[in-house]
Amino acid sequence: MITSVGSKSFTLSRLWLHMILGGFSLFILLPMMLVISISLSSESSLRVAGYALIPAEFSFEAYRYIFLDPMRIVRAYGVSFFVTVTGTALGLWVTTSFAYALSRKDFAYRNILSVYIFITMIFSGGLVPFYIMMTQWLNLTDSLLAIILPAVIGAWNVFLMRGFLATLPSSVIESAKIDGAGELMIFVKIVLPMSKAALATVGLFIALNYWNDWFGPLLFIRSQENFPLQFLLHRIMSHAAAIRDIALMRPELAIGIADVPTLSARMAMAVIAAGPMLVAFAFLQKYFVKGIHLGSVKG
What we know:
By secondary structure, this protein is mostly helical. Helices cover 70% and strands 3% of the residues.
């Protein structure tokens, strides 16, 4: 069965394909819908009725609890945005320049450096030496550099970018050399503009890593002014859990404490933290899929 719809042919198999993909998309959205529903449910209804796609009793108590000090959340958002934007820009430059050198067949040390960076995917120096290096040697305690520098470059991102850059036609680079362009000009004026899909893909991975990081701030950040969003939400949730534990051990102190929204607050924090990255992915998804595909063609 084939009918003409405008300039495109419509087939029954195409209809089934769209229905399957549409159903699969709805299935993927269900967890996010459940998270939003739980965040808008009252704590008492969650204990009685459990989790549901439609809240048994609507309540914004979880968001009120998190936003008891709104400026604290706003400041944490600002720190997270600064760390994410700065770290992503720096990470893209270092990752792409390193991957470009590895993708050039005329670079003498490409194999040695490839093995070196591959080893970092398997082994690490350990947490204690890393902590000593950051705090004692580099003196980065309570500095945003302590959470920016460690994630600037990652081996997987380098190999993904190298795979894409290896697909670029060498004739373009050779023509630029004949015209008198230097390596830096070739990289900035030719390679980077031709690598938008790969840059968007790797940039999204780097940004997600910075945005979701809470362990780095736990190790190195001391002052509340430098708390990023994820770490602040983690502390809020830890405090709420501690309050409820006290209420369980000391029932005479449980008046008012029992209403602390620990269950719904977890989901409210997920909504607050995930929002910016969902928006970023919506704008970068067309580059993301293309970059993943092209980056896997060559290794």
